From TrEMBL, chains A, B:
All copies of domain HTH gntR-type, residue ranges: 24-82
InterPro entries in the cross-refs: GntR_C, Tscrpt_reg_HTH_GntR
Identification of the protein by name: GntR family transcriptional regulator
Record's keyword terms, sorted: DNA-binding, Transcription, Transcription regulation
Pfam families found in the cross-reference section: FCD (PF07729), GntR (PF00392)
Domain GntR C-terminal: 92-215
DNA sequence: TCATGGCAAATGATATATCGAACCGCCTTG
DNA sequence: CAAGGCGGTTCGATATATCATTTGCCATGA
């Protein structure tokens, strides 16, 4: 394997006014979220800096933020890596997603205007299109956007950063999951979520969110982890 | 007001092998957790660096981590501050604490050995002592340690960093809360928690945790926020 | 063949230098 | 006396320099 052949950082849209450090953060964030960096890959700040054509300083700051997000771990020997997944931690993360996202959805519900539900439906439609084109990175993006928009409808929310942290920790699975046979189930669950939203039915909403998570990444991830203590890389 | 008279950073035990950046992080983390930095105080990286007798670089990295923890916000004009609290966000944070910590406690329950419950009781006893001596910083520390130990009993837990983030965001209230008249209620709730743990009763545990949070910081904080949209500084 | 010692290169941590933007007082002007 | 403008000062962002560790690799020897 090449010295730096194990990972890549998908390009992102670079807003101006974006600081270099922020750019590095989002670039790496995005890569982890999409599963483009296999777990246990050893990263170096200077290597990332060279890849991004930056000095080590802003990359270091980005890595610090990501370590607070639990997206990477900084080992004692100062090595940086995306954590290896273990079955126990995986189950905890899935349960966390369910608890957090059900809570977030229910608390967003009173704030959700009809127009916002229509926007969500539009995102869902774009997911169908992305699925048709087998554009899995885009599918992952849109799935996150669907959930994010829903939860952010609550103007006082403080939960979204926590949810994103869990997403990040599950990031290495996203790719693998969406390529699995369960993909259409995920989309179906979104239809159920939309229906519950339109009826303002908190109970059905909770069930739909939980099912979405469990049948999506939950089921596929658990399958991938079956039998082995550690998760095989998503590649 | 003096140029730097509004805040101070309580000293902490400095392990060796601790990196300077980590030291800065923990020092500021601790200060926010104890409410030693009033909300809306304008901080500068150079000012913090001078106070800690460090170069700006490690302080900057610590601030980045804290911004990912939602403990500080970095404004567009590059000003750094502990966020102002608003009543809506406060309610969200309290509900978040309840959801997260009830979940964490229930999932810790099966892993909790009798000896660990005894340890928790010992921490609670130290809280009674700290209360007697009116050592509120210590009381806050011990309160966090009580909860932290409980939740960390689950070896696969991934929730603790999220809970700490919420604690941090509520940090500016801790001081104010523990000085309030509700202090003994808090301790009483810990006795109820311990009782539920001994009986391995998940339902009673959930109620006890929720009551602990609601009657502790929840009630006092809500009182402080009553009538005003913004929270007065804890000073 | 495989363990071991050691050296050169790479790395992380931190301090410092530099640069442009933001801020702060003060002074002018109406 | 109030509002606006000007210039020096401070600040954050980033690049670079420095230093102690760590890594990796290769030679040596069991």
């Amino acid at each position: 394997m090449g010295k730096q052949g194990d990972w890549y950082l998908p390009e992102i849209r670079k807003d101006d006014g974006m600081t270099t450090q922020d750019y590095a953060y989002r670039r790496i964030f995005n890569a982890i979220m999409l599963g483009a960096i296999p777990p246990a890959t050893s990263l170096t700040m200077r290597g990332l800096a060279a890849y991004l054509d930056l000095s080590p300083t802003p990359v270091r700051e980005a890595i610090r933020r990501l370590s607070s997000d639990q997206a990477v771990e900084v080992l004692d020997n100062r090595r940086i890596r995306v954590p290896q997944m273990r079955i126990g931690r995986f189950r905890e993360l899935i349960e966390l997603r369910i608890v957090l996202e059900c809570h977030a959805a229910v608390r967003a519900l009173p704030h959700l205007a009809d127009i916002a539900i229509a926007d969500l439906a539009a995102v869902d439609a774009r997911m169908d299109a992305a699925l048709g084109m087998q554009d899995y990175d885009q599918l992952t993006h849109l799935n996150h956007e669907f959930h994010r928009r829903l939860y952010l409808s609550n103007p006082d929310q403080a939960i979204m950063p926590l949810i994103e942290s869990v997403w990040l920790q599950l990031g290495p699975f996203q790719r693998q999951v969406l390529k699995g046979v369960q993909s259409y189930y995920l989309v179906d669950h979104h239809k159920t979520i939309l229906s519950a939203l339109r009826d303002r039915d908190a109970d059905r909403l909770t069930v739909a969110i939980a099912d979405d998570i469990r049948d999506g990444i939950g089921r596929s991830g658990a399958e991938a982890l079956e039998g082995s203590q550690d998760l095989p890389p998503a590649g």
